[in-house]
């Protein structure tokens, strides 16, 4: 704590850049860790039943969020510490690997900048407090969830469930402004709302329109903002999703199956609710339709 609000916000923003660099690791590795865990569970079950199992993949050592060290996916060049400074290293390297000169995705510094900007906003709004820490954690979780879901259509329980419980605890100890009763009702309503839509769609079409991760994410958002924020969040996520989906369709960039994951748009609506408030979001969405 520096005693100067703007300087405190800058310090927290720099921390956000560092967290954003770590989020890039989370976004890449968590889905792989999940797939490996599922593979192991399947093999354990097959062995338990005494059924013939396919050959196991070759063990390639420890793989988690801390190991192995980051490397270039093209040439295997080990990323040195000074090549991993958020944003600055990307600029200094000209967006290329120092080993093979392959292009580094612009997404890495964008994730860092987005996280740093969100952390700065939280500190500037709530000061040096546990409330700021809560909303910074919220921001980091939504950035990670949005990118993971966009890449893989997965919303890991290891992120959505702690996000939900953090809101309930934050409400209980008054680190969040939402009363605990509203937080609990928001979590239950958010989950049941998308759960109901899922089953209605499945009964009508025989297809699954979304995953259970979407239910859990909306439940978490309901816990953070209360039940009354769910309608603005759903409306905004739907409008953004429709616009992006139509744009991708016209650009012929839809994935196989012509689907667009809903989680990134829920995450965007959640972040917008944090920044401007759910009611302003509702007013903006209604104004689009002239209401």
Detailed description of the structure:
With 291 residues, this protein is mainly alpha-helical. The protein folds into 2 domains: 1-125, no CATH class; 129-291, no CATH class. The chain is 67% helix and 0% strand. It contains 10 helices and no strands. Helix 8 (230-250) packs across helix 9 (263-276).
Number of self-contained structural domains: 2
Average pLDDT rating: 90
User: Termini distance?
Assistant: 46 Å
Structural class determined from secondary elements: mainly alpha
Reported for the largest beta sheet, the result is: none
Q: Name the helix and strand elements from N-terminus to C-terminus, one letter apiece.
A: HHHHHHHHHH
What share of the residues does DSSP label as strand, in percent? under 5%
Low-confidence stretches: none
* Tally of separate helices: 10
Which features does this protein show?
single chain; 291 residues; mainly alpha
């Amino acid at each position: 704590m520096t005693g100067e609000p703007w300087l405190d916000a800058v310090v927290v923003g720099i921390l956000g850049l560092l967290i954003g660099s770590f989020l890039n690791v989370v976004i890449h590795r968590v889905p792989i860790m999940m797939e490996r865990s599922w593979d192991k569970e399947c093999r354990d079950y097959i062995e338990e039943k005494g059924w013939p199992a396919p050959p196991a993949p070759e063990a390639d050592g420890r793989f988690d969020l801390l190991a192995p060290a980051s490397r270039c996916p093209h040439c295997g060049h080990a990323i040195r510490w000074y090549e991993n400074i958020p944003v600055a290293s990307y600029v200094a390297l000209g967006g290329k690997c120092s080993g093979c000169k392959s292009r580094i995705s612009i997404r890495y510094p964008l994730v860092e900048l987005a996280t740093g900007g969100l952390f700065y906003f939280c500190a500037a709004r709530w000061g040096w407090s546990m409330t700021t820490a809560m909303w910074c954690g919220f921001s980091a979780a939504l950035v990670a969830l949005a990118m993971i879901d966009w890449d893989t259509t997965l919303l890991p329980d290891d992120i959505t469930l702690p996000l939900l419980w953090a809101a309930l605890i934050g409400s209980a100890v008054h680190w969040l402004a939402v009363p605990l009763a509203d937080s609990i009702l928001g979590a239950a309503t958010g989950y049941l709302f998308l759960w109901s839509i899922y089953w209605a769609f499945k009964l009508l079409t025989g297809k699954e329109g979304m995953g259970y991760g979407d239910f859990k994410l909306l439940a978490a958002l309901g816990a953070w903002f209360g039940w009354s924020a769910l309608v603005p969040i759903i409306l905004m996520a739907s409008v953004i999703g429709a616009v992006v989906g139509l744009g991708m369709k016209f650009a012929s960039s839809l994935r196989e199956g012509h689907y667009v994951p809903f989680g990134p748009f829920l995450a965007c609506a959640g972040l917008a609710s944090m920044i401007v408030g759910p009611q302003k979001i509702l007013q903006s969405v209604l104004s689009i339709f002239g209401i």
